[in-house]
Design brief:
The complex is a heterodimer of chains A (351) and B (504). Chain A is built from 15 helices and 2 strands. Chain A is an all-alpha fold. In chain A, strands 1-2 form a two-stranded antiparallel ribbon. With 504 residues, chain B is of the alpha/beta class. In chain B, the strands form 5 sheets. A 6-stranded mixed sheet of chain B has the order 6-9-10-3-11-12, sandwiched between helices. A 6-stranded mixed sheet of chain B has the order 18-19-20-15-21-22, sandwiched between helices. A 4-stranded antiparallel sheet of chain B has the order 2-1-4-5, covered by helices on one side. The interface between A and B is large, with 37 and 47 residues.
Chain lengths: 351, 504
C-alpha cells in the first residue's frame, strides 16, 4: 500500500495538473534544474538571514556584539566537526564516532599536558594525532575490511567512549596548571572574536580549498558519485577513502583540543550527541547523504543556523527541551527541501 | 469490428521540445506492432501517454472504438493497458508471487493468505507457460526470468488487452529472447495486442507483424514487416539513406602490427577457464558469445577488477601482474564498461569532471592541486574531436543522450592516452545514427594504432568491425575466427558449443 501511495505522490509531483499550463510547469522545473547544486545553499543562507532578522526584531538582546560573539563561539566545535565530516558524507559515508572520538582527543591532550607534562604544542599535536589515528582506523575498517561506514563508526564510537573513560579514570582533567591552554579557544587575537572561531574559519577555508581545488577533493566527489566507476577509471579508491576518513579524524582532533581549551578541562563524559549535531549541520547545509554532492560553505552555514536558532530561542526564554525539538524540525525541512529539489531537477520522478 | 487501439494526432510538448507532433497508429487484436525510432524520437513519451503517466496536449485515443481519457496510470490499468518498462520495477527481496500480486494480496482481514497467493500465481505462470516457482525470490532469478515475472505481473490483471514492452530484450541473451518470443506469440494468439519497442532489427523480423516508425516526434509511416527491408526501415528512422553494410569487413590486413597484449590461460574461480588470446596494435579484436559466456568477466579479470585464479598477461611483450584497475591504467589499458551509467560515469557530475577522471594523477600540480583550466581545455578538444553533443564542458552528464555519454567515456580514456581499449557493448542503448559515429571512431582509433577489444552481443556489429573474432562459451574460448571465415552461423555455432561434458 505504501509503495502504491508513494508512486501516486511521485506522479502527482511530475505530472502537470490539467488546468495548469505545461509551459509554466516547465519553466519552474527548468529554473530548479538550472540552480541545481547551489539552490539549497541559497536556501540555507536565506534561512540564516531570516532567522537573524526575526530574532533581532523579537529581542533587543539578540543583535549585540557580545551575543554574536557567543553564537560564533558556540558554533566553533560543532562547526569544526561538521567541516571534517562533510568529506566523509560526500563520499556517501557517515561517521558516528565523531563525538566520542573528539572526547578521547581531549582526554589524550589533557593527559599529555598534565600527567606527562609535555609542552603545549606537543600536547595539542598529540590530541590531533589521536584524531588522525581514529580516522585512519575508521578508514581502514571501511575501505579495506569493507565494513559499512555506519557499523564501523558505531563501534568506534563505543570504543572511543570507553577509552576516554578508562584513560581519564572517569574524572575530568583540568588544565589549570597549563599556562595559556584556554587561550587556544578563548583568547582574542582579533578583539571580540574568540580564537576558536578563527580556528573554525581557518579550517573551513582550508577544507574548502582542498574540496574544490585538489585531487583529494575531486576523489571525494568521485567516490560519492560512483565508487565503482572511479575504481574502473584506474583509481585506488581504498587509499582515498582511507585518506578522507583520516582527514576527518584530524578535524575531530582539532575539535577535541578546542573543546578542551574552551572548557579548560577534558570532560570524559561529554561527547555523545555531538556527532549527530555535526551531521545535522552538514545536511542543513545541503550536502546529500547519498553522496556526491555538498560544500563546506553550506556546512558552515548549516552550523550557524543551528547555533543562531538555539541562541535565539534561549534569548526568547524558550525551554531547552523545545529548542531541541525545533532543531529536529529544521533538519527535517532541510532534507525535505533537498528531496524536492532532486525530484524537480530530475523532471521524471520515475526512477 | 473496430480496431483494438486507435491513436490519432497525439501531440505533447516539453519546454523547448515538441516531443510528439501529431502521431498516429493503430493496433489490432492479436498483433505485434513494432515501434521504432532513434533515441529521442518520442517512443517513450508516447508510451507514457498511453499508460497515463503523461497527459497529452492534444489528440485522441480510442479503445475498441470508444474514445478514452487515460489521465492516470490506474485508469490505464482499468482500460486493460499494461506496460513493461525498460527498467524493471521488481522488489528483489520478495518472491515471484509477492511481486506479481503486490498490493492485491489475498487476505482474510489483516491476515495474508500465502497459500492462496502461491496457488493463484502458479496457475497464472502455468497458463503463460513460464517455468518459475511462485516462492522463488526474485533477486535470485536471472534478468530474463525477472522479465518473465514482469510480464506475468502485467498479465495478472485479467483484462489486459494491450501490452506495451519497452526494449524487453536489452538485457537478456539470445536463447532467453527466444523464450520471451514464444510467450509473446502465445499472447498474440490469445488476442492481446502488443506494442514492441526495440532497436534490434533481427528481433523485429522474428516477432513483429507491422512496424511504425517515429522520427523527431513525428509519425513517419507504418509498414508490414514482410514488405519492408531493413535498410528501408533504417532510412525511415534516420531520414537518410544509410549504406549499412551488414557484411563483415573487407579491408582486413594480414595482421603485422606488433603484439600489444598477450593473455594466456586466464582463469577465475567463478567462470573463466584458460582464456588465451593475442591482441595487436591497430587491431579490433571482437569478442562474441552469449550472455554469461564470460566476455565481460574476461575484461574485468584482465584489468584486475575481479580476482584472478591463474594465467598470465603480457603487455608489449613484458609479463605483468595486474592487481587492480589502477595498475591496468598505468600500463595503458582502459576499460569502457557495459553498464555505462553504473560503472562508467558519474552522472551527476559535469562532462569535464568525467573526462578528467582517468588522467587526474598524471595531470596534477604540486600539493595535489587540480589543473582545472587545462582539464577544461582537454575536454573542449575532445568535445570537438568526438563531436560530443553537449552545450558545454560544464553540462551534467546525466542530461546527455546515450551516444554522447558513451563518447564522454571514450574521451576519458583518450585523455589518458591508453594504448589498449576494451569496449564492452559500446553501442548498447545507442541510436542508429550515433552507432555509426561510434563505429567510425573505433575504426579511426585502430588506424591510429590503438589495440582494441570490442565485446558485443550484436553479431552484425562484431562482423563489421572486427579484424578477428574471439568466440566464448561458458567461460572458455571456443574459437578465433577471421572475417573471411566468419558469419553469423559460424559464430553462433561456437557460441553455443556445450563444453560441460569436456570440462567434467
Amino acid at each position: 500500500m505504501t509503495t502504491q501511495r508513494a508512486e501516486d505522490l511521485a506522479d502527482a509531483g511530475t505530472q502537470s495538473a490539467p488546468g495548469e499550463s505545461v509551459a509554466a510547469e516547465a519553466a519552474r522545473s527548468g529554473r530548479f534544474a538550472a540552480l541545481g547544486q547551489g539552490l539549497q545553499q541559497v536556501l540555507a543562507f536565506g534561512t540564516l538571514i531570516a532567522l537573524i532578522i526575526v530574532f533581532t526584531i523579537a529581542s533587543p538582546k539578540f543583535l549585540t556584539i557580545t551575543n554574536l560573539s557567543s553564537i560564533l563561539l558556540s558554533t566553533a566545535v560543532i562547526g569544526i566537526l561538521a567541516v571534517g565530516t562533510t568529506f566523509v558524507i560526500i563520499t556517501g559515508g557517515i561517521d558516528l564516532s565523531l563525538g566520542t572520538a573528539m572526547t578521547l582527543c581531549s582526554v589524550v591532550t589533557g593527559l599529555l599536558l598534565t600527567d606527562a607534562g609535555l609542552p603545549l604544542p606537543l600536547g595539542v599535536l598529540g590530541g590531533i594525532a589521536m584524531g588522525a589515528l581514529i580516522g585512519l582506523i575508521n578508514g581502514f575498517n571501511v575501505a579495506v575490511l569493507g565494513l559499512p561506514p555506519f557499523i564501523a563508526t558505531l563501534s568506534m564510537m563505543l570504543v572511543a567512549q570507553g577509552l576516554a573513560l578508562v584513560l581519564s579514570g572517569v574524572k575530568p582533567i583540568y588544565f589549570t596548571t597549563v599556562d595559556g591552554f584556554s587561550k587556544i579557544a578563548l583568547g582574542e587575537i582579533i578583539p571580540k572574536v574568540p580564537n576558536a572561531v578563527l580556528v573554525l574559519f581557518g579550517l573551513a577555508i582550508l577544507a574548502g580549498i582542498i574540496l574544490r581545488k585538489t585531487i583529494l577533493g575531486r576523489m571525494t566527489y568521485a567516490i560519492g558519485s560512483n565508487e565503482e566507476a572511479t575504481r574502473l577509471s584506474g583509481i585506488n579508491t581504498r587509499r582515498w577513502v582511507l585518506a578522507i576518513y583520516t582527514l576527518a579524524g584530524v578535524a575531530t582532533g582539532v575539535a577535541g583540543v578546542v573543546l578542551a581549551a574552551r572548557l579548560n578541562s577534558a570532560q570524559p563524559q561529554l561527547g555523545v550527541g555531538y556527532e549527530l549535531q555535526a551531521i545535522a549541520a552538514v545536511i542543513i547545509g545541503g550536502t546529500s547523504l547519498l553522496g556526491g554532492r555538498g560544500s563546506i560553505l553550506g556546512t558552515v552555514i548549516g552550523a550557524l543556523i543551528m547555533s543562531v536558532l538555539i541562541n535565539g530561542l534561549r534569548i526568547l526564554a524558550i525551554q531547552t527541551e523545545w529548542q531541541t525539538v525545533v532543531v529536529g524540525l529544521v533538519v527535517l525541512v532541510a532534507v525535505f527541501a533537498d528531496n524536492l529539489r532532486k525530484r524537480r531537477a530530475e523532471g521524471g520522478g520515475h526512477r | 469490428m473496430s480496431q483494438l487501439l486507435t491513436v490519432e494526432g497525439i501531440s505533447k510538448g516539453f519546454p523547448g521540445v515538441q516531443a510528439l507532433d501529431g502521431v498516429n497508429f493503430e493496433l489490432d487484436r492479436g498483433e505485434v506492432l513494432a515501434l521504432v525510432g532513434e533515441n529521442g524520437a518520442g517512443k517513450s513519451t508516447l508510451m507514457k501517454i498511453l499508460s497515463g503517466i503523461y497527459t497529452m496536449d492534444s489528440g485522441r485515443i480510442a479503445i475498441d472504438g470508444d474514445e478514452v481519457d487515460v489521465n492516470d496510470p490506474k485508469v490505464a490499468q482499468k482500460l486493460g493497458i499494461s506496460i513493461i518498462h525498460q527498467e524493471m520495477n521488481l522488489m528483489p527481496h520478495l518472491t515471484v508471487a509477492q511481486n506479481i500480486y503486490i498490493g492485491r494480496e489475498p487476505r482474510t482481514g489483516p491476515w495474508l493468505r500465502d497459500g492462496e497467493l502461491n496457488r493463484r500465481t502458479k496457475q497464472l505462470l502455468e497458463g503463460l507457460n513460464i517455468h518459475l516457482r511462485p516462492s522463488q525470490v526474485v533477486g535470485d532469478l536471472t534478468v530474463a526470468s525477472q522479465q518473465m515475472v514482469e510480464i506475468a505481473k502485467a498479465l495478472s490483471y485479467d483484462h489486459t488487452k494491450i501490452l506495451i514492452m519497452d526494449e524487453p530484450t536489452s538485457a537478456i541473451s539470445i536463447s532467453e529472447t527466444q523464450v520471451l518470443f514464444g510467450l509473446i506469440r502465445s499472447l498474440r494468439d490469445r488476442g492481446v495486442g502488443i506494442v514492441y519497442i526495440s532497436h534490434r532489427m533481427e528481433e523485429l523480423r522474428q516477432i513483429a507483424d507491422r512496424v511504425t516508425v517515429l522520427r523527431d516526434g513525428q509519425y513517419v509511416g507504418t509498414r508490414r514487416m514482410d514488405e519492408v527491408s531493413d535498410d528501408e526501415i533504417i532510412s525511415m528512422m534516420v531520414g537518410r539513406e544509410i549504406s549499412a553494410g551488414y557484411s563483415s569487413r573487407q579491408d582486413v590486413p594480414a595482421h603485422t602490427g606488433e603484439l600489444a597484449l598477450s593473455v594466456r590461460s586466464l582463469s577465475t574461480k567463478k567462470l573463466l577457464r584458460d582464456v588465451s588470446f593475442d591482441l595487436h596494435k591497430g587491431e579490433i579484436l571482437g569478442f562474441a558469445g552469449l550472455m554469461g559466456a564470460g566476455r565481460t568477466e574476461t575484461a574485468r579479470a584482465l584489468i584486475g577488477a575481479d580476482p584472478v585464479s591463474g594465467g598470465t598477461v603480457a603487455v608489449n611483450g613484458k609479463e605483468v601482474r595486474i592487481s587492480g584497475p589502477e595498475v591496468a591504467v598505468r600500463l595503458g589499458i582502459g576499460y569502457l564498461p557495459e553498464d555505462r551509467k553504473r560503472h562508467g560515469l558519474m552522472l551527476e557530475q559535469d562532462v569535464a569532471f568525467n573526462v578528467a577522471m582517468a588522467s587526474l594523477s598524471s595531470n596534477k600540480a604540486p600539493l595535489g592541486f587540480l589543473r582545472e583550466g587545462r582539464a577544461r581545455k582537454v575536454t573542449d578538444r575532445f568535445i570537438k574531436a568526438l563531436r560530443i553533443k553537449t552545450p558545454s564542458s560544464r553540462t551534467m552528464v546525466k542530461t546527455l543522450s546515450g551516444g554522447n555519454q558513451q563518447k564522454v567515456v571514450i574521451a576519458k580514456w583518450l585523455a589518458r592516452d591508453c594504448d589498449v581499449l576494451i569496449f564492452d557493448e559500446p553501442t548498447r542503448g545507442i541510436d542508429v545514427g550515433a552507432k555509426e559515429e561510434i563505429y567510425k571512431l573505433l575504426n579511426d582509433l585502430a588506424d591510429e594504432g590503438k589495440a582494441i577489444i570490442m565485446i558485443s552481443s550484436e553479431l552484425p556489429e562484431v562482423l563489421r568491425l572486427s579484424h578477428r573474432i574471439v568466440v566464448m562459451s561458458q567461460g572458455r574460448v571456443t574459437g578465433t575466427l577471421t572475417p573471411d571465415k566468419a558469419d553469423q552461423e559460424s559464430i553462433m555455432k561456437l557460441a553455443t558449443q556445450n563444453i560441460e561434458d569436456v570440462a567434467a
